[in-house]
Amino acid sequence: MFDTVLIANRGEIACRVMETARAMGLRCVAVYSEADAGAKHVAMADEAVCIGGAAPAESYLRGEAIIAAALETGAGAIHPGYGFLSENPDFVEAVEAAGLVFVGPSAKAIRAMGLKDAAKRLMAEAGVPVVPGYHGEEQDPQFLAGEAEAIGYPVLIKAVAGGGGKGMRLVERAAEFAEALKSAQAEARGAFGNEAVLIEKFVTKPRHIEVQVFGDGEKAVHLFERDCSLQRRHQKVIEEAPAPGMTAEMRQAMGAAAVRAAEAIGYKGAGTVEFIVDGARGLRPDGFWFMEMNTRLQVEHPVTEAITGVDLVAWQLRVAAGEPLPKAQEELGIDGHAFEARLYAEDVPAGFLPATGRLAHLGFPADVRADSGVRSGDVISPHYDPMIAKLIVHGATREIALRKLARGLAETQVAGTVTNLAFLGALARHEGFVAGEVDTGLIGRDLEALTAAPGPSPQVVAQAALAAARLWEAAAPQSGFALWAPLARHVLLRQGEEELPCVLRVAGRDRAEISFGDVTVRAERVDGRWRLDGRPAPALFHEGAEITVFAEGGQVFVAVDPLDRAAALGAGGNLIEAPMPGRVVSVLATPGQAVTAGDRLAVLEAMKMEHTLTAARDGVVAEVLVADGAQVEAGAALIRLEEEEEAAA
């Protein structure tokens, strides 16, 4: 067996492959772009080679540079991960021509499944059920319209070289066909350089169920199914294994069909045969059809690993080294249920736009498998997929596993960038999903409810106010108390464009009351941990002015500095006022003094911190209204500038 493997990828999958390879005693080589010089996968590797610029075309898609790095570092094999060059047959041939082992299928197998129309013809010949449709080469619009009529509406127009929903159109009536065809062809031409399409019968309540297969180049086995029906715009969101509602009869039929598909092309390594399933009348052996085959490891492979106990990457490396299939079909079985949720840096309210930014903090609960390619402090780059992690849970039953998923999502901590965490949490609690009533249209039908962003609870606001007042830390210097009456402090938070004014009253060393609107929250620290209205407060992260409370999908607040706000509100005004109660440490201005905007006029001590008050505009000091050492209330006038007309005269 080769002793060194180069991972021709980045991020989560590169780290995932390295974990197994190192556990098998293999030496690991990473490749990286200039933008990834400090990435997690680079730090994990025994050796790393820079292969170019930030754009994938300048680095991770440069097959010749990757092969050169493998030869330079003594790697005997290249693992492609998924994406990038993982399904590029020319790259496979170049790897093998260089005398290296490609950890995956042959170039011939990849080409056989590369075009959807050719793959469907091949599968039909192998006895694999395919969706009724037209998969031929004739692309005349009138001919295609006739085929659509013969299939029966509704139909799907799909780009033969497509993926990710590009070049796909649903047509429900004959009158809409011509325009939909023109649109699909244009999109396919722009995305893939190939405008050819196929036409298929549209399944009205479709489920996306795929079967994990593994071959040694001659024989293949299946490792059961995964349900990937929970999708948004044809992109998977949460996957599970096994499929809810699956019967033994249908599982046997789907598994056998998937194995026939793999053996028909002499498949070697891990692959996935994807089926479209008619869920309208339950799962039936005559209600599934071949959709496509992914000739690589899938993003969602961990759920299969969880229910079978098989390390698919270890199998990949062993078979690539010349070993036979590690297990026969009868040795494989299903244990329990598993879910995977894809955590992304994306702005859900803005339409799931990819987000960037520094991950100020990242943490996962101990009982959740988190496959991630980033760490606290890393930056989500605009150059690559914004995935933060895949969260995988396993339980004895679907109900138990789903509860673990919901809890795991609730306990996941991300600060520094917006994420889809709240959206995933809403999905995990969705009534239909909980009941196992899944299909590919579920998210679309309930998108508004799933993406609703309710305001934070009073307890979460109160917790943020405690942090803003520097009372969250166990040994906060402001945690003392005042005699006779609680010390009141105004704390201003902002969430988005909304300002959230709070009043905080310290009632003792470990007690406080926070008023927000007409609600008052009681806070008490017991054994070093705050409790809000008697319940333990969740964790939070505070950096600079930003406070993230890890509750309700992650609530982010900005602590508004009253001095900054006073300056902003007072710009152009005559009075410099105390933004909070405190003691005047020193007055730096004198009557008649000419000042410019930003000049220091006085120093105020409040909550054991000194704050410098500055001039909001150019002007002349008319009078000083306080003396050094004076105690003042919030809003007290300290210094007055001359009226601008008066100063000009």
Structure characteristics:
649 residues, alpha+beta, 9-stranded antiparallel sheet, 8-stranded antiparallel sheet, 19 helices, 40 strands, 27% helix
Cα distance, first to last residue? 91 Å
Reading side by side through the largest sheet, how are the strands ordered?
29-28-27-26-25-24-32-31-30
Q: Would you report the number of β strands?
A: 40
Oligomer: single chain
Largest sheet: 9 strands, antiparallel
Q: Uncertain spans, ≥5 residues at pLDDT below 50?
A: none
Q: Mean pLDDT, nearest integer?
A: 91
Report the sheet-strand fraction: 25-35%
Overall 3D shape = elongated
Q: Give the structural class.
A: alpha+beta
Number of helices: 19
State the helicity in percent bands.
25-40%
| Computed Rg | 31 Å
Describe this structure as you would to a colleague:
- With 649 residues, the protein is of the alpha+beta class.
- It is 27% helix and 33% strand.
- It contains 19 helices and 40 strands.
- The protein has a 9-stranded antiparallel β-sheet with strand order 29-28-27-26-25-24-32-31-30, covered by helices on one side.
- A hairpin with an 8-residue loop joins β7 and β8.
- α12 packs antiparallel against α13.
- It is elongated.
- The N and C termini lie far apart (91 Å).
- The relative contact order is 0.07.
- The mean pLDDT is 91.
Secondary-structure blueprint:
Elements: E1 4-7, H1 11-23, E2 27-33, H2 40-44, E3 47-52, H3 63-73, E4 77-79, H4 89-97, E5 101-102, H5 107-112, H6 116-125, E6 133-134, H7 141-151, E7 155-159, E8 168-171, H8 177-192, E9 197-201, E10 206-216, E11 220-232, E12 235-241, H9 248-264, E13 268-278, E14 288-294, H10 301-308, H11 312-320, E15 337-344, E16 346-347, E17 353-354, E18 357-358, E19 361-363, E20 369-372, E21 379-380, E22 387-395, H12 398-411, E23 413-415, H13 421-428, H14 431-434, H15 442-445, H16 447-451, H17 458-468, E24 487-495, E25 498-508, E26 511-516, E27 519-526, E28 529-532, E29 535-536, E30 540-543, E31 546-549, E32 555-559, H18 562-570, E33 575-577, E34 582-587, E35 594-595, E36 600-606, E37 609-614, E38 619-624, E39 631-632, E40 637-641, H19 644-648
Parallel strand pairs: 1-2, 1-4, 2-3, 4-5
Antiparallel strand pairs: 6-9, 7-8, 7-9, 10-11, 10-13, 11-12, 12-15, 13-14, 15-22, 16-17, 18-21, 19-23, 20-22, 24-25, 24-32, 25-26, 26-27, 27-28, 28-29, 30-31, 31-32, 33-40, 34-36, 34-39, 35-38, 36-37, 38-40
